[in-house]
Amino acid sequence: MSTQNEIILNRICQGGAEQRASEIYLLPAQPPFIRIDGKMTTLTGESIIAASFIDDFSKSILDEKEKFVLENDRQIEVIRNIGKMGECQIDLYCQKNSLACRIKLLVREIVDLEKMGLPKMVTRFADFFRGIIFIAGPRDSGRSTLANSLLNHINKNQAKFIATVEKPVKSVLRGMKSVVEQREVGKDAPSFLHGLRYIRQRNADVVMVSQIENAETMDEIFALAEAGSLVFAVMDTESAIKTIKRILHFYPTSKEESIRYFLSENLAGIIVSRLVPKIGGGRIRALEVLAGTPAVRSIIASGRFHQLAGVIQATEDQTSVSLDQSLADLVTSGKIVSEEAIKYCNNEEIFKSLLRR
Prior knowledge:
The chain is an alpha/beta fold and 357 residues long. The protein is 39% helix and 25% strand. Helix 12 (323-332) runs antiparallel to helix 13 and helix 12 crosses helix 14 (348-356). The radius of gyration is 22 Å and the shape is globular.
């Protein structure tokens, strides 16, 4: 990359970081765009990006094999160091027959679980010996941050063998009391399926998978849990009920009964995360939590999913938290405004009734 272009790139990334941006978008013939607290805006003070700038950048960061992938697939995702930003997730892709780029500024520091202000039932998930804990939410909802905090809590406090299969590896876990092995799909393992199969051969205590691609991957997760591992599985679903239904949709209808059985036998819990704009700037986490209690497992096994909504709303036994209740609590405590909370709630009518209590 030319010296001049490198100076411009570093300035753009530094400017985004100073405004607490999570992503930077570089598109030909447009100014740089940044995402702050989930919202897109232009990066002020920067000129229009030339197509030659993005081409120069791509050539400087990709090796020959990666250039071949970009040429054939018209898209590629890599992790690279950019100046003082450290490692960033870089997506290069074609749009309107030109190369464009997204740079995700990775937060490498792992947040202590105790400092996240989570319900006790969430922190207790880190002490489970086996089962599957699904960490769900839409993209940019703090799923990876939460998953890594749970893993690092185990790493600091328990002598375990922790193995992950990720794409990409967003935060590096340094072994403390535990042995930690992190493998990246595309670099260290050919696929999530191959990575999980290899883990199953080696008696891992704790496993984390950052994506579930298909039924075969889900089968391996069931097999790991059946063998005695605690599995954290990240999914891009918007609620606990939708998470369960998405799992069932991986399979043909003829297998639904057996999959409900495996899920009911191995479900430890579901955590659904949202990051909501906070009063005064920044974002705060709202959660939906469903623990795999005997009652919940019985409902799943029988397919009576309509009953789960009532279980989640009934928080008296402290085994579940509804997203609507979590949002209402944040409003009443003065941390977010109700207009923002409504955008994220599952049921607007229930949410408003909770505010009136």
